[in-house]
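Box 4.2: Ligand-aware structure prediction
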Amino acid sequence: MALALALAGALVAGCGGGGADGPELSVSDAYLPEPVNPEVAGGFLTLRNEGDADDTLVSVTSELTDTVEIHETVDNAMRRVDGLTVPAGGTLRLERGGSHLMFLDPAEPPVEGDTVVVELRFETSEPLRVELPVTSATYAGGDGSAEGTEHTEHTDQSEHTGHSGEEHSP
Ligand SMILES: [Cu+2]
């Protein structure tokens, strides 16, 4: 491990990079919906790169299973890829209907409330350890991402805060 990191460092230096530059990755919005099919689970997260060089997510390991693949979705069909680029100054989103982490044959199917720990490995950056909270099976991501249209029904009973009546947006 130490040797591998040393080699990676040497390669980066060989590319002419100075000390301070390179990719700078951070993770947000990580989650893993409780799988409907216990043999396969999908993981989602957002990777941000504040650095000035691209990086590539090349592999993922997890205590959940030995087999974690990186998938992308093209024309509603998912396929395994060798890596996904996190562009310099940009974002890589793993989200429902798009690219995702694929956990095959988990030893024990994850259940809502669990936490699944993964380690993301990159071409350049050091590995990142990320905790994915296991959410309900229909959860589709945090706040902004607009696409979560399926979870509008459960507000009827549980949230009566803005109840003054005048406005009912469809
Ligand atoms: Cu997949």
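In the box above, the bound molecule is copper (II) ion. The radius of gyration is 19 Å.
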